[in-house]
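Re: weekly structure request thread

Next one in the queue (331 aa):
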Amino acid sequence: MLHLHSNFNNMIIVTGAAGFIGSCMVAKLNEMGRGDIIMVDDFTKEIKRRNWETKLYVDKVQRDDFFQWAEQHAREIDFIVHLGARTDTTEFDYSVFEELNVSYTQRVWSFATKYGVPLVYASSAATYGAGELGYVDEEKLAYQLQPLNPYGKSKNEIDKWILKQTTTPPLWYGFKFFNVYGPNEYHKGRMASVILHSFHQIQETGRVKLFRSHRADFADGEQLRDFVYVKDVVRMIYWFMQHHPASGIYNLGTGCARPFLTLATATFKAMNLEPVIDFVDIPEDIRDKYQYFTEAKMSKARSAGYRRPFYSLESGVKSYVTRYLLKDKVY
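Done, posted below.
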């Protein structure tokens, strides 16, 4: 749904707008009455077309053309929400991430700084590695974190680079996303949430496969993650854009870790079925990089003034399954 303005004033740039969180961000902005959006992504990928084709926007710009476009329209840009990234945690060639997650983000930052444009960018809970130092969004910890994969490393490298910059955009926020799930992730394949995989497994076989625990201190299916519904993610980003708390890096999770077993059970329940769960070994290629526990410490965002409650895992899964997956709809 193309919505053309005669003039480009106060535009919001959303990169990664054809992707999972990016397209949900556009949907949220549309809900809040904003149609003055420039969507940036690689729009040649037909599999993602559903995510953006019904959205309200002014224009869409190919990812590789963005900086040329931005230089021509710099004075009309109100905010940049940079959510475009390579997110494959099973890709072990760091150079793949260097280009899109590090270099591209540095260029976005430099542009935002040069023209005084407020900036949001996506960091990740993958920066925390195995969680040896906890999950506190204290910026000085960035230099000590040991991510478990090249994706996490790329996100931590950009965090460290940004923290060293002496000139900055007027406002900037890096959000460390925890385990985000929800509509518009259908194109992500192996990287989609366990809820989406569970839903498809239940439809096809009536059963769900979960990873067996390879640690004595965790029972099978009791591995814990901070699962956060994408609607909470875009709501919090939007709140920061509106309320302008102190710039910095913030965790974005629920602050409450939940077991995979609970997630699978909630998926069955949303489909009105009794749970049937099988346990399988964690694949060898990711076993030593597998997180058994993640939980966002949310006190920094709370003390910045963000008070809204988050969806519980049960309510988030129910919304996702009944409103989107069963109806084959996007947000």
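The chain has a mean pLDDT of 93. Residues 94-115 form the longest helix (22 residues).
Next request, please.
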